[in-house]
Design brief:
CATH class of the largest domain: Alpha Beta
Oligomer: single chain
Structural class: alpha+beta
Helix content: 25-40%
Number of strands: 20
CATH architecture of the largest domain: 3-Layer(bba) Sandwich
Shape: globular
Strand content: 15-25%
CATH superfamily of the largest domain: FAD/NAD(P)-binding domain
CATH topology of the largest domain: FAD/NAD(P)-binding domain
Distance between the termini: 28 Å
Radius of gyration: 22 Å
Length: 489
Amino acid sequence: MQVFDALVVGGGVNGAGIARDLSGRGHSVILAEQGDLAQATSSSSSKLIHGGLRYLEHYEFRLVREALGERETLLRMAPHIIWPLRFVLPHRPEMRPRWVIRAGLFLYDHLARRVSLPGAEAFLTAENPMGQALKPEITHAFAYSDAWVEDSRLVLLNALDAKRRGADIRTRTRFEDATRHADHWEVTLRGRDEQAQRIRVRGIVNAAGPWVQRALDQAHTARPGAVRLIRGSHIVLPRLYEGEHAFILQNDDRRVVFVIPYEGKFSLVGTTDVPHEGDAASAHCTPEEAGYLCAAVSRQFRHEITPAEIVWSYSGVRPLFDDGADDPSAVTRDYVLKLDETAAPLLSVYGGKITTFRRLAEEAAGKIGRALGREGTAWTAGATLPGGDLGGKSIAEFAAEMGRALPFLDAGSLPRLVRTHGSELPRVFAAGHAGAAIGAGLTEAELDWMRREEWARTADDVLWRRTKLGLHMTPAERDGVSARFASLG
């Protein structure tokens, strides 16, 4: 029977971040994920690293301050998958007075130290290219800075770093049962081959996201808190405007809707806040949610949107800690960690947001480490993720260097490859060639890397999580990727 210090249940951003942090502190770690890494909530976000401007209205100043501080840390940690993004906030006087927005943006700029991002500004929409997509009756707007993240790759890179530091990462592996003893747990995992695997661990971290309560039941322990499952749906449309800026639209229900440049040819619109019933795996964008998002954009954009234009949609279920708020939008996005030390320790993770995952992981690793008798030293704030060390170069400079070093790569695909792999790119193509073209810039060499090093086991793993090339491929090309995986068994 294999023995580990800690089992992390869940391969989303929190679980992968905790596994990485614990491994870096010298603990032996195994992570069990029932599906693919980032298969659920962590690949279905709005893909933003942001402080949460709207959270200021709910007086969540500590959460906003922490998130704003993390922006700078994450921009340094993985500059190939995280980069600055300028947001335009159109002014609707019937929603909020201009002075309120000015005050909120001033606070947003100054709650935490801002190093690399420009501050907020006001402008007239008729005089600024960033306002051209808006209806002419919207005459004033504001601009401020946050950041964008390739969310599913953020999870993957944390898992990859954890593996390189000694963690055992097991995907397609269910946490099935656990028996608690005074100083350890005996755990049953069930892998892809449906064979039961028994392991012994000194402590468990329950980072199962929407399934956090189910994991507690499988561990035969009491539930230390309640969870609210809130569905956030997104739609992808053909590109709505020129420019690399995003929009944050004030909607009539006082929520906000983001419109974000996406994959070059598209615009990403989200998100909704709807209570979710049933299994989180069943989450999908309903016709009502799609209509809501289209209406939110049409209300302020010159181009009126209809659901018929949607090219893709996705939904994620946020497992928020139930703080008793009636309005789903008002439920705290802060995380809550519940540690049970009545026998062998069990730490359960509730809530959280992708921006603060590293801080959450750091606190969780400290808590479970202390319970195991060795807290270790916090270390992740100054460490890059795999691919993140660009040698002090900008993305453009690094891409030019890769073009010279790997001349066989297609020049049109190089920007995407750099954004995907960063400084790992020479390792991806270590054989000195790209292999046969598969479609949309995907080649045999890259596909083999994702299978060998990134736990890709199905076409969906590659086309919708390791990349978003599914949006760019023809149906025949997507079928070709599926056939390749099927032939490998």
